[in-house]
Write a structure and sequence with these properties.
There is one protein chain. The chain has 173 residues and is an alpha+beta fold. The chain is built from four helices and eight strands, in the order βββββαββαβαα. Strands 1, 2, 3, 4, 5, 6, 7 and 8 form an eight-stranded mixed β-sheet that branches. Strand 2 and strand 3 form a beta hairpin.
Length: 173
Amino acid sequence: MKEIIINDKNLTENDMESEVIRVKGLILNSNGKILIAHNNNTYQFPGGHVDGDESINECIVREIKEETGINLKVTEDPFMSIVTYNQNYFGTGKKVLSKIYYYRFFTDEEPNLEETEYDELELATDFNLFYVNFEDFDSFLEKNIESGELDENIGREMLYVFSEYNNIFGGAE
């Protein structure tokens, strides 16, 4: 698994006040499209936070089901992770170690909105899903970063993950 460490302030694990573990899924179909979400005024890969003593594999299955209504099984380990030592986690002033694990999935199962379980923020910010052509995905992200439709930090992360995905797997298949 490719691991990227972001630690601009040279912090140590002992400096961290807490740890946040998240998972995200790159969900591709046989038509060469990738499923993404739009929520809280930005785009993102479906996923979320690990709950309690849940494993990251259990979490990605649960989060994909909650956000898309799609039932998936984990058949391979995450292909990459980004570990960030945050000095000021989302403006809270807290030092937080953030770990995000990225999975890939292939399915032609369509999102089933009747099976989703959105949280309060997702409901309040009009969470929705749509497909983007895999071959156009990087230009889609760049265009939406430039227009402000995609949070710059999330967009850069998505571009980096997408680039690494292509480096590791060589495309949509």
